[in-house]
């Protein structure tokens, strides 16, 4: 049997053609743009017309050596000698279709949950169409949107089988990389392709639309992300890390990246002031309508759910999605995630929608995220003495998060506390700077998110895009960015705390802002207390 390339799977829908656009012209242009497999999907067409369209489409696809699949209608598939048939859960069962179709006919089936995947395996499907991965307006969905983490669970069930998998539903060039990176099983089982309807069929220039998608898929494959899932550099030493952080300090000052922050009401002004003091530039915008424009110009996004309300949630969803589409760092602070079911659900939704570059939390927050009972929360704070083995814990959470993404640059996890632990899943940095007064003011943790975002923006801006980086979600060293942000805050806190004008928490904050603005390479080199494990 010839090998089928499922990379860019066009599913047709003539209703979506722009006014005046001819269907066959659109199909040919899509084929020229790089579509690798085509499904003819005619929901309301008479048999005679469907047959005619399928015959002519088959001719066209044959000329481009691209396989043609027929949606739902086995009779049409037989009549045009299609390469395959796609069936839904309420159509003819795969096992029956298999008996009726010639040997070697490809049979695909739609799946929305693990039971349907199980059945597809039993029935001997060649591929599954997993959807809807995102919301879509192309079809009325009668089953839940799955999200990339849901797709990952289904791919896990396909481990060890030869069944191929494509995701479908709401896939656009904007979320394509996120879809490919995020849809991965813990064993690194990735999608074989993506199925797209409106992005190509609705385009006036389908050749360009298909080529854009095809290029992103190729760059994802070229970047070798699939094979590098857990391999991160372990060439860090204390010296290289400090040199790197000093470089980032200077870069923040020189380039003053715009840091878009959707943060909580308690700390908006403090976070903005800290960002300015570091040398970056804050924008504290929350309205969904401006998220796309901001993602074009910001250097990094910070999302902090401290005082979450539904309108802000909408903004967070959109901001992260657009930041991912622009490959900007996303720093996520799941404040108080263990405190309520509402927060847990919200965090699940956000993480299923976009990819964080850095997740920062205190012990209770990360315990809740990792499903551990070792540390309990009291509102937004942790109770007790923390983890017995924080180094292993943070490394494991980073590994677990990385398993939700194929990207070799995601995801760094910061466990904040008296001692801060930062891991990329391989390396762990242990940082012992800081001062007790930080815990006597509100929002020092939230401010550290602003510092991390500023340094991650610098890390991204310094990175040179190499050929193999083009398929990554974000480029630049996010591990260094996270370390740099934490060191900037904690070292400045040490200096602020011992100033003569500081009498307690009230006078500490203004002094902290001063020290953030005065921080120098020399101070970092002299004061950083860091181990790399
Ligand atoms: C590749 C792929 N995946 C899923 C579907 C959806 O098929 P189905 O469930 O039969 O729904 P309709 O397409 O018939 O509306 C698909 N067509 N292709
Ligand atoms: C045909 C189809 N099937 C889906 C499923 O979930 O099974 S979603 C879908 C439509 C996908 O269209 P677009 O790429 O325009 O979002």
UniProtKB/TrEMBL annotation:
GO terms under cellular component: cytoplasm
Keyword ATP-binding: yes
One Pfam family recorded for the sequence: HK
The protein's annotated pathway: Cofactor biosynthesis; thiamine diphosphate biosynthesis; thiamine phosphate from 4-amino-2-methyl-5-diphosphomethylpyrimidine and 4-methyl-5-(2-phosphoethyl)-thiazole: step 1/1; Cofactor biosynthesis; thiamine diphosphate biosynthesis; 4-methyl-5-(2-phosphoethyl)-thiazole from 5-(2-hydroxyethyl)-4-methylthiazole: step 1/1
Segments crossing the lipid bilayer: none
Single GO BP term: thiamine biosynthetic process
Molecular function, one GO term: hydroxyethylthiazole kinase activity
Catalytic reaction list: 4-methyl-5-(2-phosphooxyethyl)-thiazole + 4-amino-2-methyl-5-(diphosphooxymethyl)pyrimidine + H(+) = thiamine phosphate + diphosphate; 5-(2-hydroxyethyl)-4-methylthiazole + ATP = 4-methyl-5-(2-phosphooxyethyl)-thiazole + ADP + H(+); 2-[(2R,5Z)-2-carboxy-4-methylthiazol-5(2H)-ylidene]ethyl phosphate + 4-amino-2-methyl-5-(diphosphooxymethyl)pyrimidine + 2 H(+) = thiamine phosphate + CO2 + diphosphate; 2-(2-carboxy-4-methylthiazol-5-yl)ethyl phosphate + 4-amino-2-methyl-5-(diphosphooxymethyl)pyrimidine + 2 H(+) = thiamine phosphate + CO2 + diphosphate
Superkingdom of the organism of origin: Eukaryota
Signal peptide: none
Key words of the record: ATP-binding, Kinase, Magnesium, Metal-binding, Nucleotide-binding, Thiamine biosynthesis, Transferase
Keyword Nucleotide-binding (UniProt): yes
Reported cofactor(s): Mg(2+)
Domain Thiamine phosphate synthase/TenI intervals: 8-200
Family from the record: In the C-terminal section; belongs to the Thz kinase family. In the N-terminal section; belongs to the thiamine-phosphate synthase family.
NCBIfam families noted in UniProt: PRK09355.1, thiE
Role, per record: Condenses 4-methyl-5-(beta-hydroxyethyl)thiazole monophosphate (THZ-P) and 2-methyl-4-amino-5-hydroxymethyl pyrimidine pyrophosphate (HMP-PP) to form thiamine monophosphate (TMP).
Identification of the protein by name: TMP-TENI-domain-containing protein
Organism of provenance: Gymnopus androsaceus JB14
């Amino acid at each position: 049997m010839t090998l089928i390339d499922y990379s860019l799977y066009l599913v047709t829908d003539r209703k979506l053609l722009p006014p005046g656009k001819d269907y066959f012209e659109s199909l040919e242009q899509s084929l020229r743009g790089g579509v690798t497999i085509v499904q003819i999907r005619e929901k309301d067409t008479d048999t005679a017309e469907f047959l005619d369209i399928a015959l002519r489409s088959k001719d066209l696809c044959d000329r481009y050596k691209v396989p043609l699949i027929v949606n739902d209608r086995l009779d049409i598939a037989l009549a045009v000698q299609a390469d395959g048939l796609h069936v839904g859960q309420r159509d003819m069962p795969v096992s029956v279709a298999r008996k009726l179709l010639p040997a070697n006919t490809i049979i695909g089936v739609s799946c929305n949950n693990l039971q349907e995947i199980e059945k597809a395996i039993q029935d001997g499907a060649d591929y599954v169409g997993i959807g809807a991965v995102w919301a879509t307006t192309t079809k009325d969905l009668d089953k839940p949107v799955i999200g990339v983490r849901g797709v990952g669970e289904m791919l896990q069930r396909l481990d060890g089988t030869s069944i191929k998998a494509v995701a479908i539903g709401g896939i656009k060039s904007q979320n394509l990389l996120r879809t490919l990176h995020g849809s991965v099983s813990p064993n690194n089982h990735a999608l074989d392709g993506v199925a797209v309807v409106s992005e190509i069929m609705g385009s006036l220039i389908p050749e360009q639309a298909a080529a854009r998608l095809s290029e992103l898929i190729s760059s994802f494959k070229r970047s070798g992300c699939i094979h590098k899932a857990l391999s991160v550099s372990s060439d860090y030493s204390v010296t290289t890390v400090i040199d790197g952080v000093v470089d980032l300090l200077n870069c923040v000052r020189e380039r003053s990246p715009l840091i878009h922050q959707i943060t909580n009401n308690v700390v908006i002004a403090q976070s903005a002031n800290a960002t300015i003091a570091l040398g970056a530039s804050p924008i504290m915008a929350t309205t969904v309508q401006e998220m796309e424009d901001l993602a074009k110009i910001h250097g990094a996004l910070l999302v902090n759910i401290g005082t979450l309300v539904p309108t802000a949630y909408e903004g967070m969803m959109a901001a992260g999605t657009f930041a991912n589409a622009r490959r900007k760092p996303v720093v996520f602070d799941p404040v108080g995630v263990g405190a309520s079911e509402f927060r847990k659900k919200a965090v699940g939704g956000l993480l299923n929608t976009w990819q964080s570059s850095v997740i920062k939390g205190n012990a209770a927050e990360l315990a809740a995220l990792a499903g551990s009972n070792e540390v309990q929360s009291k509102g937004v704070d942790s109770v007790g003495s923390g983890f017995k083995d924080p180094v292993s814990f943070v490394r494991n959470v980073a590994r677990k998060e990385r398993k939700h993404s194929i990207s070799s640059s995601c995801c760094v996890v910061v466990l904040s506390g008296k001692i801060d632990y930062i891991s990329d899943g391989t390396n762990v940095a242990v940082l012992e700077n800081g001062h007790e007064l930080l815990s006597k003011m509100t929002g020092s943790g939230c401010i550290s998110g602003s510092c991390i975002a500023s340094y991650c923006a610098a890390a991204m801006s310094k990175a040179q895009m190499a050929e193999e980086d083009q398929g990554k979600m974000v480029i630049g060293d996010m591990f260094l960015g996270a370390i740099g942000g934490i060191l900037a805050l904690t070292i400045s806190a040490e200096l602020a705390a011992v100033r003569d004008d500081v009498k307690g928490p009230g006078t500490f904050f203004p002094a902290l802002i001063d020290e953030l603005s005065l921080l120098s390479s020399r101070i970092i080199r002299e004061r950083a207390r860091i181990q790399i494990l």
